[in-house]
Amino acid sequence: MNAFQSLFSELPSISMEYVRTLLDQAETRNLDSTAILSAGAVAPQKLGHPHNRVSINQFLDMLHATDMASADENWALECGRALGLSEHSLVAMPLICGDDAMTLADNGLSMISLRLPLFRLKASKLDADLRVVMEPLWDHHDGMVRALDIIIGTLDRFISQLSKDYTISLGPHQARDAERLANALHQQVRCDEKELALQIHGFADGNFLPGPLRDPGNRAALSANVQHTLLLIRRYIMCDPGRACTPERVAERIGTTTRTLNRYLSSAGQSFSKLRNEVRTARGKHFLRHSSMPIIEIADRLGYSDQASFSKAFRNWTGQTPGDYRRTSRLRTPERPDSPSPTDSTPRGNAAAG
Length: 354
Hints:
The protein has 18 helices and seven strands. The N and C termini lie far apart (53 Å). It is an alpha+beta fold. The strands form two sheets. Strands 3-4-7-5-6 form a five-stranded mixed sheet. Strands 1-2 form a two-stranded antiparallel ribbon.
C-alpha cells in the first residue's frame, strides 16, 4: 500500500448509513452490535448523526469482526442486497442520465465506488452484455474477504429489478466461494479468470422503459412530462411491486394526485395495472427461473395475498402455471457461447412445486 492509500484509509469517508445496514444484518443474526462497533473503534452515539463518517479501516475492521462472529457465510451478500438507491445516493440518477443504459451504468457504478470505496467498478460494453470489473482497493485487509460479497449483493439487487441474468468471474483460487455464490444467487459463477468481474447478459436492451416508450414513434408523440411521469411510475413499481404498490401511493411519492397520474397513463394508452403487471411478470419469471424460492413467497413479494391468486394471474400472463414455467424454463435454458468450463460452479436448487 502506497503512502496515498495509507493516508486515505484513515480518512472519514463512509457514511453511517452503511454502518447501520451492517449492524442491522448483524442484529438479525443475534450478533453483538456493540462488539462490532468496538472492533471499528466507533462510539455508539455517532450512529445518530447522519453527517458522521467512518474510515475505510474502521469499516473493514467491522466487516472482519462480523465475519468472525457470524455462522452464516452469506451475511455480507444480504448486507449488499439491503443497500438500495437511497443509500448509494442514486435516486435521481435515472432522471439525470436518461435511459441510455451505458451512461446510467457508468454513473451509477462510479457513485457506488465513491460512496463505498472498497472496489473500483469499471463498466465496458461487450456486444449486448455489460461487463463490470471489480478491482479491489484494500487487498491487504482481512475485511475484504466479505467486502466482495457486499458489492456483488448490491449489484444483484439492481440487476434483479431488471430481470437479467449474469455471470460472476472469480480467480482460480476461489473455487469454494464460487460454489457458495452460485448456490446463493442462482447465477453462473466462473473461477478461472484473472480479474474479478460480473457480466450482465442482455443489458443493451435496457428494460428501463415502459412499453409505450420503447417505440421511438410513440415516444416522439408524447410530451416530455408524460415520458418523465411514465418513467417515474415504472421505477417506483420496479422498486416495490408488492401490496404497497398502489396508484395512490405512487402518486404521492412522485408528488401528484391519483387523478393526474391516471391522466398521464391514459394519454400514453397505458394503465397502472397494466404497467404493474408488466413488472410483476418479468420479476415473477426471474424468481421462478433462477431461484428455489417457494412460490408462495414469490406471490407475497409481488403483492398477492395467497399462492392461488398469483397462480391465476401468472397463467393469464404466460399461459402456464408458475410450477410449469419453473420446470420448463429450467429444462430449456440454453448454454451461452462462452459456457462455463467443467471447473465452474453452476446454480443448484430444488424447484418448488407449483
